[in-house]
Amino acid sequence: MSSPAIEVCDLHKSYGTHDAVRGIDFSVARGEVFGLLGPNGAGKTTTVEILEGYRERTRGEVSVLGFDPGERPAELRVRVGIVLQAGGMYRFITVREAVAHWARLYPHPRDVEEVIAVAGLQDKAETRVRTLSGGQARRLDLALALVGDPELIFLDEPTTGFDPAARRAAWETIRSLRDLGKTVLLTTHYLDEAQELCDRVAIIKAGRILAIGRPQELGVGAATRVRVSWRDEEGRLQEREVEDPTALVHELTSAAVARGASVTELTVVRPSLEDVYLELTADAAASVTADPVPARA
Ligand SMILES: Nc1ncnc2c1ncn2[C@@H]1O[C@H](COP(=O)(O)OP(=O)(O)O)[C@@H](O)[C@H]1O
Ligand SMILES: [Mg+2]
């Protein structure tokens, strides 16, 4: 049982002439919470839906719990829970009826009331689905993904559109999945969500993985570079990135002292994971072709 829950090797997906996924590789260990982090259009949903068996890949190898999802094996369906980016199948029945109905599709469902509680919908069990708020409807999607007691759960943007309190509640739910030993693949465009929840993150943009690793590692790796900025004698803002700012700062300050002046607006900043993300995703087309960021395993 120590083989990875998910393995993706050189996955490509084209829609007509548009290459949405351009050769990505990653694997997710059993019990791991893995995040695909990237802006809209990055290829997150495409990747996840190929792993779910909802879309056909153009080429590459994928394995989910040892199966090829492209063959839509029946055994896989009952071992995997899915929250689609656009959920909401039921409208006129109550939350409890929806969860109970979905539970009957699985051989070993979890307790309906317990799942409603885990999703934070106790107060809404008797409420008709169509009257739920956006955040509550998303929590129902989560409940439906959990009720079959799957070992692997796909969550495509599980908190998009949530208010801050609902996001915190969803984060708690996702942490409880990890505590239950579940494997989770989630997509998000929120950096804080990836940082809070994920054991490892792949930053994806324009169908390519730009960096992969533990959130701290991605931050720490970037933090080996330091950004020094200052205003020069002509009043122009200057900026340099260096590994060790000591010599540069010495040069700037001693030159200024020799002139009897000071270095104005001198700052020395270590980039955060957020800076790394913005930097990687801002200009991916240029950086991917000209100066690829090495993937860190
Ligand atoms: N069914 C489709 N037909 C054509 N193009 C699509 C289809 N689905 C997605 N795309 C395109 O593929 C790219 C990746 O989309 P998607 O996987 O939904 O990204 P994400 O989930 O990261 O926002 C986008 O440019 C999108 O417009
Ligand atoms: Mg998407």
Quick recap:
The protein has helices at residues 44-52, 74-79, 95-103, 112-118, 134-146, 164-179, 191-197, 215-223, 246-258, 273-282, 284-290; strands at 6-15, 18-28, 33-37, 59-64, 80-83, 152-156, 183-188, 200-205, 208-213, 226-231, 237-242, 264-269. By secondary structure, the protein is an alpha/beta fold.
Would you give an account of this structure?
- It is a single chain.
- The longest helix is centred in the middle third of the chain and has 16 residues, at 164-179.
- The chain has helices at residues 44-52, 74-79, 95-103, 112-118, 134-146, 164-179, 191-197, 215-223, 246-258, 273-282, 284-290; strands at residues 6-15, 18-28, 33-37, 59-64, 80-83, 152-156, 183-188, 200-205, 208-213, 226-231, 237-242, 264-269.
- It has 297 residues and is α/β, with parallel strands linked by helices.
- The two termini are 21 Å apart.
- It folds into 2 domains: 6-219, Rossmann fold (3-Layer(aba) Sandwich), CATH 3.40.50; 226-269, no CATH class.
- The site of adenosine-5'-diphosphate (ADP) has 11 residues, from β2 and α1.
